[in-house]
Amino acid sequence: MSTSGAPGPTARSRRDRRDALVDGRRDEHRNGRRSTRTIGELDVVANRLPVAWTDGVGWERAPGGLVTALEAVVRRHRLRWFGAATAADGDHRPAWSHGPLVGVRVDPWITDAAVTGMANSTLWPALHGIGERIRWRDSWWDGYVDYNRAFADEIVATAARAASIWVHDYQLLLVPAMLAAQRPDLVVGLSIHTPVDEALGRLPAGDAITDALSAAAVIGVQTDRDRRTLRDLLPERGVSTASSRVPALPEVITSPVSIDPDAALALLRDPATDAIAQRVRGRLEGRYLIVGIDRVDYTKAVEERLRGIDLAFRRGHLDPDRVDIVQVAQPTRHAVGGYAAHRVEVERLAHEVASQWTRRDGSAPLRLVPEGVDRRTVAALLSEADLALVTPRRDGMNLVSKEFSIYNERHGGVLVLSEQAGAAWELGEHSVLVDGSSPASIADGIAEAMHLDHDRRREMARGRAGAVRRWTVHDWAASFLRSLAAA
Ligand code: G6P
């Protein structure tokens, strides 16, 4: 793993790494495209329902990349969707036009222990390999077991015979084993949207978790590296369950989640999006636009990025009079220890950098937007950007980098991408790769990006968009479901 403050990779080592990433990607995509029979009834199981109820507003699309990704699946398959019913939407059962929703009711204190505690304070940092953030409490683990059981019970009671169950993410890692024990007829697949790190196995419940995972028929992870790590973490032989149909060990596949490029382009061409893009352009007055869009999570390393920007100003790579930097910093997980303080620190640092490098006319070259922005604004900002900074310390995939690849293809901007983002596996060849945990490396990356000539930028932009079109969210879903059907 990269260490903080380490110098950025040399051009040579970057190229080697890029080649390795690309070769791996090609193999994996080939392996994923096998033809198999189709699946029967499909139940999707995720922590969040795709819609959320707000009093006075009604049902709205829930936030989060997973909901966006699965929208494409929902349009093509008859399915049910299991998700946690929150206190607010508990009394409302919507008639969702795409198919039925199943809101799983769980006591708030169990949800708190399971999601705020075990999932977000223990598993999230462990899966990202960020040791100093890992917290452990036995009561969180107990809550996590109960939370997973509430989901499993609902599925056990209602799933059709031999249905395929597609479980998502780190909040529900125990569900495969719970289902295998009670409903051996079900075929259970799990997609993990975070990275996978060895630290998972070192948790007090590490063996219990990896044993539970091994009851799944198929597990999809984002990169080849995650696949190797998970294989090493799984027990050598499958755990014994009530089922003879449960394979000895799950098939672990590299299954990078993606976006729907056509839907992205439709959103971009929408007149309302175009109006925002025109406003963005108008404000620029010919300056160079640099954009970052993140949740304020320590894995996204917004702090390191701001320090990298500061260094780029200091070294003269960036000129305050000729650049506009917009960093969207969406607050997240207020209840999880450390997030509120981290957010305050990010906002303080942004203010410090902005006031340190004011322009001659007194205006600031850096603007931090301390809230989430709607999808049209995201599309408009990314389409107009000359440079996008996607520099997490570690990330499962990072769909913003894929959105940038489509929205920005015509503009021909540059992507400065962390090699620790899952997306580096597919887009690294056409991006400036940096070490997201190192401000010095980020500053180097900005400098390199600023000096790329027009032809090289265009070539990279085409390469990125092509990579996203070759592996869309439909390919992702179809290849996972094929593996599940073959299991
Ligand atoms: C990641 C996780 C998702 C989660 C999202 C937002 O992408 O994989 O499961 O929903 O972050 O986090 P939040 O805590 O706001 O749900």
Q: What are the bound molecules? A: 6-O-phosphono-alpha-D-glucopyranose
Stretches where pLDDT is under 50 for at least 5 consecutive residues are: 1-37, 89-99
What is the radius of gyration? 22 Å
Helix- and strand-based class? alpha/beta
Strand residue content: 15-25%
How many beta-strand runs?
A: 15
Our measurement of the CA-to-CA distance between the termini, rounded to an integer number of angstroms, reads: 34 Å
Q: Strand order, main sheet: write it out.
A: 5-4-1-6-7-8-9
Largest sheet: 7 strands, parallel
Write down the overall mean pLDDT: 88
Number of helical segments?
17
Shape estimate: globular
Helix % is 40-55%
Describe the model:
With 487 residues, the protein is of the alpha/beta class. Helices cover 45% and strands 16% of the residues. It has a seven-stranded parallel β-sheet with strand order 5-4-1-6-7-8-9, sandwiched between helices. Helix 6 links the parallel strand 7 and strand 8. It is globular. The two termini are 34 Å apart. The N terminus is likely disordered. It binds 6-O-phosphono-alpha-D-glucopyranose. The site of 6-O-phosphono-alpha-D-glucopyranose has 10 residues, from strand 1 and helix 2.
